[in-house]
Amino acid sequence: MTTSIRPLIAGNWKMNGTSASVPELVAIGKAFTHGFDVQVDALICPPATLVARAHDVLSSTPVRVGGQDCAITQSGAHTGDISAEMLKDAGAGFVIVGHSERRTDHGETNEIVQKKALAAWRAGLTAIICIGETQSQREKSLTLDVLTAQIEGSVPQGATASNTVIAYEPVWAIGTGLTPTLPDVAAAHAHIRSELSRHLGEGFETIRILYGGSVKPSNAQELLSVQNVNGALVGGASLKASDFVGIAEACRPA
Ligand code: PEP
Hints:
Layout: E1 8-12, H1 22-33, E2 41-45, H2 51-58, E3 64-67, H3 84-90, E4 94-97, H4 100-105, H5 110-122, E5 126-131, H6 135-139, H7 143-154, E6 164-168, H8 182-200, E7 208-212, H9 217-224, E8 231-234, H10 241-249
Parallel strand pairs: 1-2, 1-8, 2-3, 3-4, 4-5, 5-6, 6-7, 7-8
Helix pairs in contact: 1-2, 1-10, 5-7, 7-8, 9-10
Phosphoenolpyruvate binds near residues 175 and 212.
């Protein structure tokens, strides 16, 4: 973790959660409010149906709320889509764009992801832009090339630390219990940092680069201690307050 950048621990609930999950949100909010002395930002991205509820429950706590995807346009004839402005109106401050499940299940290209990041900015949201290689790309030693192409294609010019977070999520590590070796995480994050510099020219130095893929309390400390890892994007382990808080606690300096 680069110490000058305050880490962000972001939870992606994916298509999980109903009103029965509200007590879990309450528990997360409480944990970060009372006696939580770790210097870390926390964010929960519930399904869109819970964004307003999450905002109601968490707005008096340090925990922020985000969406998991947004449309490119602001409004109009796009049945089922939700715009960044709508997420903002419901209380979101962030939105994930380009998650590998969106890229795979919905055919989202780098170009679409870039437009979604711009839509997030238009609404005043911080875009969490996800990138990462598949298993077959990794086996062909294409990881760094894939990251370069995704940064060039998905990250709009004008990205800064206040409007953008990058999440490096090796697709093969998501939900599998597998994680890259620490040297592999370090190499990917160093590459992303240097490609952001090449691509953006300026403003890149303090952009947070999260690691995502099977992060849990038991491996968070080692993953979060890697250079240029500025937090985590957490799927499964963010559904339980105790696990999510346990991951955030791993940001405590040793
Ligand atoms: C994710 O979906 O962004 C993710 C990292 O999932 P998990 O933590 O479950 O691997």
